[in-house]
Design brief:
The structure holds 2 protein chains of 2 kinds. By secondary structure, chain A is an all-beta fold. Chain A has no helices and 11 strands. Helices cover 0% and strands 53% of the residues of chain A. Chain B is mostly beta strands. Classes of the chains: A mainly beta, B mainly beta.
């Protein structure tokens, strides 16, 4: 079946630094990927829609300059958290659609801890 | 815009008992409906989805859900749960048509705890 992989699964960074999270579709091409954020014991909140070859579409309230999204190829989207602060600590999950059957596949998620 | 309400934040049940996790949605357009399961510290796994056709949808791990358009509900059921079903369950919707087909709106989740 389709697989979406995220890397790293866990990352700790210092406050003020930037960290990149990768989302890859391993066995299919994904023109659109989605980035979600999940706080502990809460639901997933859509941050942005990542479109291959064009700018990402951000949800209201999400800082574009802080959460940089790049969809460089049909199998890779990256989320870069710039100038990270402790409040950015969260579980970040990406998803991708194979384009048929409206099935969305999720990555394993990435835990970001900013200290 | 769509919204999803999962009426129970936590549902404790005993092993082999039946369970129903409730989900109601609100939308001004037609929607697709999904149930996902999330095990601790992991991503989401699709349990089942309703796109069209029969309102009773069967998914993996013995789960099923019924779409009720008049009540705008999509409740998840399992006749007999196992310890391994302990997880967080999310109901989600996406609008039909256009580029928003894969843009999901999630409920807040229901923690199912199966006790021996």
């Amino acid at each position: 079946g389709a697989v979406v992989s995220q890397h790293p699964s866990r990352v700790i960074c210092k406050s003020g630094t930037s960290v990149k999270i990768e989302c890859r579709s391993l066995d299919f091409q994904a023109t659109t990927m989605f980035w979600y954020r999940q706080f502990p014991k809460q639901s997933l909140m859509l941050m942005a829609t990542s479109n291959e070859g064009s700018k990402a579409t951000y949800e209201q309230g999400v800082e574009k300059d802080k959460f940089l999204i790049n969809h460089a190829s049909l199998t890779l989207s990256t989320l870069t958290v710039t100038s990270a602060h402790p409040e950015d600590s969260s579980f970040y999950i990406c998803s991708a659609s194979k384009g048929s059957g409206n099935t969305i596949y999720f990555g394993e998620g990435s835990w970001l801890t900013v200290v | 815009a769509q919204s999803v309400t999962q009426l129970d934040s936590q549902v404790p049940v005993f092993e082999e008992a039946p369970v129903e996790l409730r989900c109601n949605y609100s939308s001004s357009v037609s929607v697709y409906l999904f149930w996902y399961v999330q095990y601790p510290n992991q991503g989401l796994q699709l349990l089942l989805k309703y796109l069209s056709g029969s309102t009773l949808v069967k998914g993996i791990n013995g789960f099923e859900a019924e779409f009720n358009k008049s009540q705008t509900s999509f409740h998840l059921r399992k006749p007999s749960v196992h310890i391994s079903d302990t997880a967080e369950y999310f109901c989600a919707v996406s609008a039909v048509g256009g580029g928003s087909n894969y843009k999901l709106t999630f409920g807040k989740g229901t923690l199912l705890t199966v006790n021996p």
